[in-house]
Amino acid sequence: MTSNIDQLKRRTRADYPYLLQYRTRWTDNDMYHHMNNSIYNFLYDSVINTYLIEHCGLSPSSSSQYGMVVHSHNDYFASISFPACAELALRVNRIGNSSVTYEIALFEKGHVPVKSVGEFIQVFVDRDTARPNPKGMDAKMRQGLERLLVPAYQSKL
User: Fold this and answer.
1) β-strand pairing of 114-126 with 65-76
2) Domain residue spans in the chain?
3) pTM across the whole model
4) Model confidence pLDDT, tens digit, residues 54-84
5) Topology of domain 4-156, per CATH?
6) Where does residue 115 rank: exposed (0-12), middle (13-18), buried (19+ CB within 10 A)?
7) Residue 140: phi, psi to the nearest 5?
8) What are the residues facing 29 on neighbouring strands?
9) Which whole-number Å values give the CA distances from 151 to 15, 64, 121, in the listed order?
């Protein structure tokens, strides 16, 4: 039987419908000369919000809803360090009424193996109340997120 970690280690760019490049910075490195763990979360949040702004109608200063992160974790398989170009790959593994589960992989440009795979869960809340809307997330948001939904994963839940 294959473990979940083994499955994640076999991820390729083809497993993700959205890809965003990020040029690492000298300040991303820690004292061990690889990208600091906190930067991974920064990058994961950035690729998600870039997609939401570009494809789901999110306007950070004026949208009636925004995604609040309620869970995150990351599995690290190999390091990346400055100077390198990270490729952040994004997919959606589950969409609920007001929540979405993202899977984000970090690859290094020019290298095949995945460096890390993380998960973020967001709950979309009303800007005024910071509570989930009983009607769920906005229709445009849902449509944009559905373009990243991995049906094979959804059926295994």
Assistant:
1) antiparallel
2) 4-156
3) 0.91
4) 999 998 888 889 999 999 999 999 999 999 9
5) Thiol Ester Dehydrase; Chain A (3.10.129)
6) buried
7) -65, -40
8) 35
9) 11, 28, 18
